[in-house]
Every structure is written in C-alpha cells, then in structure tokens.
Write a structure and sequence with these properties.
- With 531 residues, the chain is α+β, with helices and mostly antiparallel strands.
- The protein is built from 21 helices and nine strands.
- Strands 3, 4, 5, 6, 7, 8 and 9 form a seven-stranded antiparallel β-sheet that branches.
- Strand 7 and strand 8 form a beta hairpin.
- The relative contact order is 0.14.
C-alpha cells in the first residue's frame, strides 16, 4: 500500500506541473476554448430552466435556436454542472474539469499499466496540445476512460462484478465524452478484448461479460447516441471531405515546432505541432525490437494499434478515408491527426512492458532516461498562449452557435437570417399587434398578443424536430406555418396566447428510456452479485 501511495504522489506531482498553467485567474486563448465555455453555460442554463436532458437553446445562432446539446458531447458538462450549481464561474468550472480529468486519466492509466505509462500518458505533446492549444474538453476527458475500459477487460485485475460495472460505466463515459475519439480508440479496445478472450480460461463467461458490458455501455449513453445519430439528417452538417485538408507528414509527427495556431490546408503553413514525442518514439522502437526477438501477443496489440494510428494520420491512408467517408455514415472522424491520441496511448502502455524487461541498475538508468526525455521533450508545452477574461455576463448574451462551423444548425435555417441583424423573439410582419413576452427559456417561448388589425407574426425560432406550436391551447401543424424555416402565423383581431415549446421527440424519449432501463439493470446486477 505504501508503494502505491508513493507512486500516486509522484503521479500527482507530474499532474500538477502539467496543468499548473490552468491554476490562474481567467481563461486563455485557444481553438475551442470559447466553445467549451458556451457549452457549459448553455448546459447549465438548460438544467436551471428544467430542460432535462438539455437538447436545444433558443438564444443561440442569432436567436434562431440551435440544437447544440443534441449533438455535442455531454459528459464534461455533466461533470462541471455541480461546480456551476455551487456558484463557480463558467471559466473556472471548465478549468476544473480539465484539471481533474488530467489527473484522473493519469490515475486510470496507473491502475492499468503502472507509473511510467501513466506519466507518459500525461506528458505527451498531443495531450498538451489538446489542453493548451485546442482546449478540446471532450477529447481530453475521453483519455480518462480508455485505460479504465482496458482495465475492466483484463481477466487478472478485477472480479466479474467490478469488470461489468466499471466497463459499462467507462464505455458510456467514453461515448458521452467524445464520439470521434471513441471511434479512434475502438480498434485498441477490440484488439485487447480479443487478446483477453484468447488467453481466458472460461471463454464463454468472458465473452458473455464483454457483450453485456457493451450493451449496457451503449444503453447508458442511449439518451444521447440515439437522437444524435437519427436526427443527423435534420442538420446541415460538416463538410464530409474536411479530412483531405489536414493530413500531417511523417516528418511533422516526428518533429514539428510547437505553436498555438491552426492546422492549415497542406503542411507549409501549419500553426500547430503534430509531434508524438521523443520518449514515445524511443519506446515504440524498443517495443518493436523486443517483439522481434521474443514475440508477445499482448505487446502486439499495442504495436498494431500504434501502426494503425500513424497510418490513419498520414496521406497514405487517403483511399481508406475515402471509402469510410463515402460509404459508412457511422464514420464521423473529421481530422486525420486526431489518431495521434491512439498513438500516444499505445506507446505509453508499451512503456511498462519495455521497462519490465530491464533489470536492476539498467532498469533505473532506463527509467531515468525516459523520464528525462519526457520532461525535456515537453518543457515548452506547459503554458497557454495568452490569458484572457471571459465572464459569465458575456456568455449570457452570446448569440453564436458554440461550434466552429455552425454545423448543427437546422436544415431549415437560412444563411441570411443567421448572419443578419440581431433578431427579436417575435416580430410583426404586417398588420397591427402588440406583443408581450411572458416566458422566455431555452426551450420555451410564451407570449400574448393583442391584435387590432389582422396581423402576420413571425416567431424567430428556426424549426427543428421537437418544436411544437400552440395558439390559445390549440396545437398547430407547425411545419405548415414555416416560411424561411421559421413559423409565421396570421391572426385576426383579438387576444391570443401563443406558446412555442420544445418537447422530446419520440427518438429522444426512446433514448431516455433505454438509458433509464440500462441504469436500473446495472444497479440490479450490482445488488444481485453483492448478495
């Protein structure tokens, strides 16, 4: 036990040094930093308005409404919400999720593979790029769950009960953290599961446990996965051929200058680094050399994963990308260099196996060498580009989308309205009417109107499946009222109460039910096995 505490303390020290730049007032400039703040604020706004689970927000996209939380990952903001409920600012909340997730990912890797792999898992150029350059919170959180899933698949570490509980929750956590990263990690998870199945004594029991783990993991995330997949046809989406512009070269993966700019078309003007890390290249070289001398099925799993990750990152894999993008709608990975996350994880895990081959003094020398290379190779990666302040008051009036390309906007949305002047919730298009807004929430707009001369009113909320329209408690066929994607209603003289309310679609309700059933099943299994 003392040994574990000492190693955890060492891991904590490395973690604190790694994220010390976040222990600073305010926020920092980054690629997606503003998006993370907006998402946490919008998630919190929905929770406080009773819109649970959050799906849409009327204020976003110039006041037209945007189904942000229907499609974006939710786990980071679920973890951040208790801090928001305690009154902590949004920028501090998101930093806390970054900090806690960083340490948690190291601890998870320590549980699975040991101290050196945990340090290399944390101290990698790609990990620091995710935090300080890109501020990709969902992808960052996903690194917590990969080693936990692998840990739960291991036949030697834990009992069947813990395996099932931890594996199911971790798989759900991965899917809810970042679906793209989940797809990238999936080959390693499958390969490791096959390795454990091959070496298991009771193969039928292990296979059954794995299948149940997968079912429960998918079920727990069903409230998010099912609507996100089914309702993709209702949004404008991202350019499916975006990947062609962002292949790094092998030279860039070996070494590229650290900077805080963006990945550009081609390689000449790239403003960010794609390097894997000196220590990580050393480990993979030694692991391959050792495997050639003495074959190890376990190490082969991680070597194959590494080779796959590098292959998918490079232009040589273009034909495979073309196949998946054109023929497989479930393939949603957008940028090739995201695969460097899998390469980082694979080499970090292999570090433990390589270290175990060394003995006595050689082992200490090798450990010192690797740690020295880890520290030296990341010495310039431990800082942000520039500190800024992004108060909640600014977020309260935010009318963008919370995504880079407005890719989740409704297929009904018109660019002229999205990019035009700020829109009022309701406007009189013709005739004469007075409008009094009664309720204005992320998922509701209720107003009364006194019409003195037949009037046409435009409700500036773009249609997305789930919006319902009532006039004096009479449900309307909202799609028949749409003009340029928003409802226009004609009212004769009189007094009216009009309500626009977002309700969970049948697909969303089914997803919610699946998640609830999966959660109940998990609790039931735990209690049954605990007897």
């Amino acid at each position: 036990m003392a040994k574990h505490w000492q190693q955890v303390l060492i891991l904590l020290i490395f973690s604190l040094i790694g994220i010390k730049a976040l222990i600073h007032s305010g926020w920092y400039t980054s690629h997606d930093g503003e998006h993370q703040l907006v998402r946490q604020y919008v998630f919190d706004r929905a929770i406080k308005a009773g819109h649970i689970p959050p799906r849409i927000d009327r204020q976003l996209l110039n006041g037209l409404g945007y189904p942000l939380m229907t499609f974006t990952y939710q786990a980071p903001f679920i973890l951040g919400e208790p801090f928001r409920l305690l009154g902590i600012s949004t920028q501090d909340t998101v930093k806390l999720v970054f900090i806690l997730s960083f340490f948690a990912s190291g601890l998870a890797m320590y549980l699975f593979a040991g101290l050196l792999p945990a340090i290399m898992y944390l101290w990698a150029p790609y990990r620091f790029s995710v935090i300080y350059v890109r501020a990709s919170l969902g992808e960052h959180l996903a690194f917590v769950f990969l080693p936990l899933i692998l840990w739960s698949l291991n036949n030697k570490f834990i009992t069947q009960k813990k395996r099932l509980i931890i594996g199911s929750l971790s798989l759900a956590g991965l899917l809810l953290s970042h679906l793209m990263t989940a797809q990238i990690f999936l080959p390693l998870i499958i390969l490791y599961a096959l390795y454990q199945l091959i070496t298991a004594k009771n193969k039928r029991l292990v296979a059954g446990t794995y299948c149940l783990m997968a079912i429960l993991g998918l079920g727990l995330s069903g409230y998010y996965l099912l609507p996100a997949l089914v309702h993709r046809s209702a949004i404008q989406g991202l350019n499916r051929h975006f990947y062609t512009e962002h292949f790094p070269t092998l030279k860039q993966i070996i070494y590229s200058r650290w900077d805080y700019g963006f990945s550009q078309i081609g390689t000449a003007n790239d403003g960010m680094s794609f390097q894997l890390g000196i220590a990580h290249w050393l480990i993979i070289a030694l692991a391959i050399f050792i495997s050639l001398k003495k074959f190890s099925l376990r190490n082969s799993v991680f070597i194959i994963s590494f080779i796959l990750a590098i292959f998918m990152s490079l232009p040589i894999s273009t034909n495979l990308w073309d196949y998946f993008i054109r023929r497989q709608s479930w393939f949603i990975i957008d940028i090739p260099w995201r695969w460097l996350g899998l390469a980082t994880a694979s080499t970090a895990i292999l570090a433990g196996s390589v270290l175990s081959r060394a003995k006595n003094l050689i082992k200490l020398v090798f450990l010192g060498l690797v740690l020295s290379l880890v520290i030296y190779g990341n010495r310039n990666h431990l800082r942000v580009n520039e500190y800024v302040n992004y108060p909640d008051e600014r977020l309260a009036s935010f009318r963008g989308s919370g995504t880079s390309y407005d890719e989740y906007q409704s297929a009904y949305a018109k660019e002229s309205m999205v990019k035009g002047p700020a829109l009022k919730p309701v406007e009189v298009r013709s005739g004469a009417a007075q409008i009094n807004i009664g309720t204005s929430l992320p998922h509701q707009l209720i107003f009364t109107t006194q019409v003195s001369n037949t009037a046409q009113l435009q409700i500036n909320t773009v249609y997305f499946p789930g919006w319902t329209l009532n006039i004096n408690n009479q449900l309307q066929d909202i799609e028949s009222t749409l003009t340029e994607g928003v409802p226009r209603i004609t009212l004769r003289p009189g007094t009216y109460t009009v309500s626009l309310v977002y309700r969970q679609t049948p697909v969303m309700q089914l997803g919610n039910i699946i998640t609830l059933i999966s959660l109940i099943a998990l609790v039931f299994i735990w209690q049954q096995k605990a007897k």
